Amino acid sequence: VLSHNLCTVLNVPHDPVALEEHFRDDDEGPVSNQGYMPYLNKFILEKVQGNFDKVEFNRMCWTLCAKKNLSKSPLLISDEDAFKVWVIFNFLSEDKYPLIIVPEEIEYLLKKITEAMGAGWQQEQFDHYKIALNTSREGLSAWELIDLIGSGQFSKGMDRQTVSMAINEVFNELILDVLKQGYMLKKGHKRKNWMERWFVLKPNVISYYVSEDLKDKKGDIILDGNCCVEALPDKDGKKCLFLIKCLDKTFEISASDKKKKQEWIQAIQTTVNLLRAGSPPPHKEARQKRKELRQKLLAEQEELERQMKELQAANENKQKELETVRKQLEAAAARAAEEEKKRLQTQVELQDRFSLELEREKMVRQKMEEQVAQKSSELEQYLQRVRELEEMYKQLQEALEDEKQARQDEETVRKLQARLLEEETAKRAELEKWHLQQQQTIQMTEAEKQELENQRMMKEQALQVAMQQLKQLELERKEALEQYEEVKKKLETAANNTKSWKDKVAHHEGLIRLIEPGSKNPHLITNWGPAAFTEAELEERQRSWKGKKATSE
């Protein structure tokens, strides 16, 4: 039943049969699985379009909760007025659960009601009430607010009708967005006659009714940013005229007096200006500003409380530190007194032992001087020995350098010998080639013999030159062999010197290990270093070459 009524009030399309299916008495429906609140959000509230009567919706919610929560004590206001106060509470309350209305909003509401009653505002009385309220709680619930207004604490001397009219006026302004209302004369568009109508000004429309009970509505004047209002001079026996111009129509209206005329012109013009600026109604804008101001003050208060807590914590820490320092100072003073007492006791003992220690110190000093002298002598001997070893090490280095230089000379001679051997081999091969060519030319024809003879003579001359060069190479090879023998002797001498120094060092300390000289066995040398074959292999290769040469001849 509740879901059906909610759908009806909120203009949500619904099927009674589907509702019956949702609420079957089993464990398969959405209500059984999820509970009613998820069902309410998913199947009803999410489908609301906004085109529903909010007063009727509020009245339904009031019906659900008023009987349980409304006070049973007699009040100066009717149930209808209590309902309107409850709706106003929902508008002015804070956006958090449980809903409460803070003292600032209570003051705003009571001021509006007092002004509507035409009474004076008792600020001092409310300040006392506010102080008493702040000491016990942050604000009032809806039912406590109804009890406060219904008790007549702030409307003393006013009858029930006046209070009811004031609540109705505040309700119209805050909830129904009624900016102004009252009786005025309106000129008809067809008959051009003047009829009295009850006008109600809202943020975007002026509605006019037959009477103030709002039952018989006669029409609307739609307001937008293009509308304007202007005063008219008196005419046709009508006074206090003004004109409302819209895009499609123009409305002539006559107020009861000049004050009402000016109030209506100013109210309509303010409404049009708000529509042009896209601003909300004044009471909603004022509520938003009050809320932002409260949030700002609350944030500042929280920041101040946080700073006070930080200062208090810092102060407590400082107090603890000071207490700790004081205790440490007291303990240090006690320790200092105890140490001073002990120092005086030990000073007498030290003075008694000082003479004995002094005598003992003299004896120890004498022994130390004797030991120092002995150690100095040993150190001098050790340094002399080190200097001798350093000198021997330098000589050994020189011998190693000589050996290294001799090896380099030997390597140079070996490379020279190899180069000469290569040149000698090349010359021999060239001589053999010329000899073969000479033998071939002998077998040629007689017609070519003379020419060949001349060529032979030239080749023999070249052969003689080559033989001379070969002899020169032989001489150079012999000189290279002599140089090699000299270098070999130097190397042997350097090796002997190295061996003698090695024997000396081994005899002296045994600390330095000398590099042994290389092998003394003779090796064949090529242009690229030591040969990869022995003399026997070289002779075998020479015999093989000679055999091949004889075969080719």
Automatic annotation (TrEMBL):
Write out the function statement from the record.
Answer: Phosphatidylinositol 3,4,5-trisphosphate-dependent guanine nucleotide exchange factor (GEF) which, independently of RAS, transduces signals from tyrosine kinase receptors to RAC. It also mediates signaling of membrane ruffling. Regulates the actin cytoskeleton as an effector or adapter protein in response to agonist stimulated phosphatidylinositol (3,4)-bisphosphate production and cell protrusion.
**UniProt-recorded name of the protein:** Switch-associated protein 70
Q: Where in the cell is it found?
A: Cell membrane; Cell projection, Lamellipodium; Cytoplasm; Nucleus
In terms of InterPro entries, this protein maps to:
EF-hand_SWAP70_N (IPR057836), PH-like_dom_sf (IPR011993), PH_domain (IPR001849), PH_SWAP70 (IPR057837)
Alphabetical list of Pfam families matching this protein: EF-hand_SWAP70_N, PH
Arranged from A to Z, the UniProt key words for this protein are:
Cell membrane, Cell projection, Coiled coil, Cytoplasm, DNA-binding, Membrane, Nucleus, Phosphoprotein
Q: List each coiled-coil range.
A: 283-504
What does the annotation say about its assembly with partners? The SWAP complex consists of NPM1, NCL, PARP1 and SWAP70.
Q: Name one GO molecular function term.
A: DNA binding
Q: What is its main location?
A: membrane
Tell me the ranges covered by the PH domain, including all copies.
Answer: 177-273
> Which superkingdom?
Eukaryota
Q: Which GO terms describe its cellular component?
A: cytoplasm; lamellipodium; nucleus; plasma membrane
